[in-house]
Amino acid sequence: MTQIQLPLPFGHRPALGRDDFLVADHSAVALGWLDRWPDWPAPALLLWGPPGCGKTHLAHVFATASGACIVTGDPGLRLDPPFLLTAPAVVIDDADRVSDETGLFHLYNAARDAGKFILLTARTPASRWNIALPDLRSRLQAAPVAEIGSPDDPVIAGVLVKLFADRQIKIGAEVIDYLLRHMDRSFEAAYRTVAAADALSLAEKRPVTVPLLRRILQDSDPS
Fold this sequence. Notes:
Blueprint: H1 28-36, E1 44-48, H2 55-66, E2 69-72, H3 81-84, E3 89-93, H4 101-114, E4 117-122, H5 134-142, E5 145-147, H6 153-166, H7 173-182, H8 187-204, H9 210-220
Parallel strand pairs: 1-4, 1-5, 2-3, 3-4
């Protein structure tokens, strides 16, 4: 009988600096908007794209450059505009999950009056959010928007290399080639696959190889 040792949940720290971000066609517009700060035409900027596309990474890049504080959007989050605006700017990651519409409305107005800025990240543009407060809806829909689009193969390959490096996992080129041929083409799939490979590699005390990845992808296939 093969004995499996469960990995301890020590986790890892992803590299979220500007030099770690993979600049490509799908993200160039978003990065260009961040580079224009503070020369934005409105108090708020919305970055949107699918899960795992790099929104949080860009939020940290912006926070480092601007001195912004970062809050993570959640239905239970209650925004405190005076406290948040003690920083030069505010980042609300996953802003489409915030249910405190009144707080967000007051934060927008306070940022405008103080000459400060809000970076919002979301999975969809504000026009698709279920916003009940008309004044908030009009303000967010008037804000500049940058979409982070779908990645091509070189970008997915770069993301995979970065994700493995974040976890200090050494891989060969054959691993990336295999994943590009067999993995779903999305950032979210890349995150899931690398996390699963890390866990199985630790549990079985084996390197990440094509056979190990083949098992992971077969187990994740619903068919």
